[in-house]
Amino acid sequence: MSDKRDLLILGGGLVGMTLAIAAAKKGISSHVVDRADPAELTAEGFDGRASAISTASWNLFRNIDIADALEPFGCPIASIAVTDGMKPGRIDFQPEEHEGTLGRMFPNRRLRLALFEAAQGEDLISYRPKTNVLTRHRGDHGVTAMLADETVLEASLMVGAEGRLSPTREEAGITMAHWDYSHRAMIVGLTHSKPHENVAWEIFYPAGPFALLPLLDDEDGSHRSALVWTVAEKDAAGVLAMPRSMFRAEVAKRMHGVLGEIELQGDISAYPLSFQHTVQITGDRLALVGDAAHGMHPIAGQGLNLGLRDVGALVEVMSEAARLGLDFGDAQMLARYQKWRALDSLMVMGATDGLTRLFGIPGKLPSAIRRLGMGMVQRTPPLKRWFMDEARGVSGEVPELLKG
Amino acid sequence: MGDATVANETIRPQEAAHFGALAAEWWDPKGSSAMLHKLNPVRLAFIREAIDLHWAGDIHSVKPLAGKSALDVGCGAGLLCEPLARLGANVTGVDAAAENVAAARAHAEGSGLAIDYRHGELGSLGLGQFDLVTSMEVIEHVADKQAFVSGLAAHLAPGGLMVLSTPNRTLASRALLVGAAEALGAVPKGTHHWEDFVTPEELEELLVAAGLTVGTPKGISWSPTKGLHLSDDLALNYIVTAQRA
Question: Where is S-adenosyl-L-methionine bound in this sequence (chain B) (predicted)?
Answer without folding.
Answer: 43, 74, 95, 136
